[in-house]
Specification:
Number of helices: 10
Shape: globular
Helix content: 40-55%
Strand order of the largest sheet: 2-8-7-6-5-3-4
Structural class: alpha/beta
Order of helices and strands: EHHEHEHEHEHEEEHEEHEHEH
Strand content: 5-15%
Radius of gyration: 21 Å
Distance between the termini: 30 Å
Length: 378
């Protein structure tokens, strides 16, 4: 099986596996207690926090561990809005943010706040000038912008937007799920959310970073854990494994990102050459190194993904036919691109050129068969 769905979750990094197994034996106790085994667990937790902070270029006391990237986003958005309620009730986001950002924005609206959604161009990126104008409006408490889009891979102009936010005195929350560990983080943000299983750590560990000087108040009942930011018992073994995976991924990132980017370039070039009526989506240059998305006209996405699965390729789709919703992907809709027959190929660490070539060999016949079964001949 060729696994091409790293944007959903990256396979567990070998160093994370080793760290997890070791930490299960010595990091199981309650890190809040004072006896020996608890002190060892606390030491492991704080060492992991330091390693994550160093990898992200922040202070250790700015880092909190959550139960997922989604929880990190929810706490980041709602906690910053609550901390800055005196500044206003206005939230600015892009139209292509992850659904967890949009769901948090929906709660804010239902609670009496307002949300301005900034549109994107055909590549999926916001215009920094338009986003900056939205941020400068009176009563803006928070702006949210992802580092890279999870469906099409386009990088957002975070540094430019962050500069506009700083000028307006508005904190910027960055959802860095698709780039943390893979690429250097852009400067200027105030709050950051990331997810360990996207960089080869275990599922069930997220990271919330709140920079010093950013007003933040928990939107949940307070708890003594994680500097009162995240309630619940810390999963020390998995946090240790997440830190080990991040450290290893960052060390490998320069060479591995360049290698994966070259494979993605091959897919971007060859798919439209081999398959008629295909639209390759997202920015061809300003993009994450591991994601490429294309849509095939006259093809049901679910049928194509099923054929690819039978042939040993694990890929995903942003279209409604493979999701628990009746509407197309909000990302593709916002971009104004083709949503039918949508395929997202996202390459994990270690993907071979042979597997990519095999995918490119199989895809044209699979699309042709599905179109012929639907009565379409090109």
């Amino acid at each position: 099986m060729a696994y091409f769905d790293a944007a959903s979750t990256e396979p567990l990094h070998p160093q994370a596996r080793e760290a997890l197994i070791a930490a299960l034996d010595v990091g199981w106790a309650d890190p809040a207690r004072l006896y020996g085994s608890a002190r060892r667990a606390r030491m492991l937790l704080e060492q992991a926090r330091t390693e994550v902070a160093e990898a992200l270029g922040v202070r250790a006391d700015e880092v909190s561990f959550t139960s997922s990237g989604t929880q990190a986003v929810h706490l980041g958005v709602l906690g910053t809005l609550r901390g800055r309620h005196r500044a206003g009730r206005r939230l600015v986001t892009s139209a292509v943010e992850h659904s967890c950002v949009l769901h948090a924005a929906g709660i804010h609206e239902r609670d009496g706040g307002s949300v301005e959604t900034v549109g994107v161009g055909i590549t999926g990126a916001v215009d920094p000038a338009v986003f900056g104008e939205a941020v400068r409006a009176e009563g803006t408490a928070l702006a949210c912008l992802q580092s890279a889009n999870h469906e099409v891979g386009t990088l957002q102009p975070v540094a430019e937007v962050a500069a506009a936010c700083a000028e307006a005195g508005v904190p910027l929350l960055v959802d860095a799920a698709q780039t943390a560990g893979r690429m250097p983080l852009p400067p200027g943000w105030s709050v950051l959310a990331a997810s360990a299983h996207k960089w080869g750590g275990p599922a069930g560990v997220g990271v919330l970073v709140v920079r010093k000087g950013t007003r933040w108040r928990t939107p949940l009942p307070e708890d003594d854990r994680e500097r009162r930011r995240v309630p619940g018992f810390e999963n020390v073994p998995e946090i240790v494994a997440a830190a080990a995976a991040l450290r290893a991924t960052v060390a490998e990132s320069v060479m591995e990102s360049a290698r994966l980017s070259a494979l993605v370039d091959r897919v971007r070039t060859e798919v439209p050459r081999l398959v008629p009526d295909v639209e390759v989506i997202g920015d061809p240059i300003v993009r994450a190194p591991h994601i490429v998305t294309f849509s095939c006209l006259y093809v049901e996405g679910e049928a194509l993904l099923t054929e690819l699965d039978k042939a040993g390729f694990s890929v995903s789709s942003g279209s409604s036919c493979t999701a628990s919703t009746l509407r197309p992907s909000h990302v593709l809709e916002a971009m104004g691109v083709l949503t039918h027959g949508n395929v997202r190929v996202s390459l994990p660490r270690g993907t071979s050129a042979t597997d990519v070539d095999r995918f490119l060999t199989f895809l044209p016949d699979a699309v042709r068969r599905i179109r012929e079964e639907a009565g379409v001949k090109l």
